[in-house]
């Protein structure tokens, strides 16, 4: 086994374990708060919201900072930091004796952000071949989605047979093993001829002003927001379309369909983008997702609804790998972790914005309007990308 393949396997293992750990106990936080930590019924909604959101809020602000340090001091140190802080946060969650202590543990977990940006930059630095890098980035995204899907399934089984607290114990032990493996076996990639000199390191402010990075951030904010917009209303929406007695379980299965589609489609989109261009990938995937959501606006068949959720997943999964691939080609290696971290912060903004927008729309216009609004957001992004593509073609013709 050559060194590059060995490093890739370690990176993929990091992605899978850490993404699975993020969702391993997340669906069962209300149960943990109520049964193990004694949260009162009147305070349960408040503590649940705090526990969910505090991690995302910390992520948004701290991720670019960690990206700057990773570019300056090395990506291996970034991964070790992520796994170590995750270990501490899950240990604190396991030892928590009150809802407030769990909120603090979730805030600590927010400081563990940066795994995906570091791995994207690590993967990009392994080869000067952009096509090979883009395909590997697609695999990273697929493995990330796979871990996100498997996490709740494994966590549910663990919680059912042993309890939620024991699930935290299982996770912090697994994260500790990953941390040790990173320390002992993972090696920082050696500088290659295609890497820039140290004097080309850019300040974070320059990355934030880059028009291409700003455009990609807008795409990712909308991408993440429209995925999360259906979460607050999915169970009720599904319940109205079926007589199935367990709407929560069915809505969870339906929501996971988009993730399963993403696992299957991400490498295919990456291969298509390496041949045709990732701007075209962004255009096609955004347009397809917009159409899939619009068709769900007046959907009355649960089977057709499931099919369209799967189609939506096939399309929307292309956005983040395409944005990362464009970033890998546009930003030099000395600054890539900062750039990937900015994109990651954008996705976290979308994760918070989506449920907020959805709740407001449901209050004033009804559940079905969520799909129409999300479709309109996606079509707006498609229109912008289409305009950018036309400008690029005209510039090439004039030159």
Automatic annotation (TrEMBL):
InterPro entries: MFS, MFS_dom, MFS_trans_sf. GO terms for molecular function: transmembrane transporter activity. The chain crosses the membrane at residues 44-66, 78-96, 108-127, 139-162, 168-186, 212-235, 247-265, 277-296, 302-322, 342-364, 370-388. GO terms for cellular component: plasma membrane. It is a multi-pass membrane protein. Keywords: Cell membrane, Membrane, Transmembrane, Transmembrane helix, Transport. Its main location: membrane. It holds the Pfam family MFS_1. Signal peptide: none annotated. It is found in: Cell membrane. Residues 7-392 form the Major facilitator superfamily (MFS) profile domain. It comes from the Bacteria. This is MFS transporter, DHA1 family, multidrug resistance protein. It comes from Succinivibrio dextrinosolvens.
């Amino acid at each position: 086994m050559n060194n590059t393949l060995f490093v890739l396997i370690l990176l993929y293992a990091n992605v899978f374990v850490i993404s699975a750990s993020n969702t391993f106990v997340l669906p069962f936080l209300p149960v943990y708060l109520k049964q193990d930590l004694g949260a009162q019924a009147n305070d349960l909604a408040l503590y649940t919201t705090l526990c969910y959101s505090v991690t995302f809020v910390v992520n948004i602000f701290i991720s670019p900072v960690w990206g700057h340090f990773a570019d300056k001091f090395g990506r291996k140190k970034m991964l070790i930091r992520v796994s170590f802080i995750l270990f501490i946060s899950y240990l604190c969650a396991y030892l928590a004796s009150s809802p407030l202590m769990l909120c603090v543990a979730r805030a600590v977990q927010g400081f563990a952000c940066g795994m995906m940006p570091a791995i994207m930059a690590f993967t990009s630095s392994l080869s000067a071949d952009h096509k090979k890098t883009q395909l590997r980035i697609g695999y990273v995204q697929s493995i990330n989605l796979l871990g996100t899907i498997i996490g709740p399934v494994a966590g549910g089984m663990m919680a059912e047979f042993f309890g939620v607290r024991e699930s935290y114990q299982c996770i912090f032990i697994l994260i500790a093993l990953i941390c040790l493996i990173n320390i002992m076996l993972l090696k920082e990639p050696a500088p290659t001829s295609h890497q820039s000199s140290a004097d080309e390191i850019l300040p974070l402010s320059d990355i934030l002003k880059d028009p291409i990075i700003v455009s990609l951030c807008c795409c990712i904010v909308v991408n993440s927001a429209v995925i999360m917009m259906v979460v607050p209303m999915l169970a009720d929406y599904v319940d109205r379309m079926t007589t199935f007695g367990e709407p929560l379980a069915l809505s969870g299965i339906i929501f996971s369909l988009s993730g399963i589609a993403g696992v299957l489609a991400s490498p295919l989109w990456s291969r298509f983008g390496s041949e045709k261009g990732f701007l075209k990938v962004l255009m096609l995937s955004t347009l397809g997702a917009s159409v899939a959501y619009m068709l769900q606006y007046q959907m009355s068949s649960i089977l057709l609804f499931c099919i369209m959720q799967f189609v939506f997943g096939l399309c929307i999964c292309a956005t983040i790998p395409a944005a990362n691939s464009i970033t890998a080609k546009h930003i030099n290696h000395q600054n890539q972790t900062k750039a990937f971290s900015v994109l990651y912060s954008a996705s976290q903004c979308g994760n918070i914005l989506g449920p907020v927008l959805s709740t407001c729309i449901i209050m004033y216009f009804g559940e079905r309007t969520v799909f129409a609004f999300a479709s309109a957001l996606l079509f707006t992004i498609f229109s912008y990308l289409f305009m950018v593509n036309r400008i690029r073609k005209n510039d090439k013709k004039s030159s």
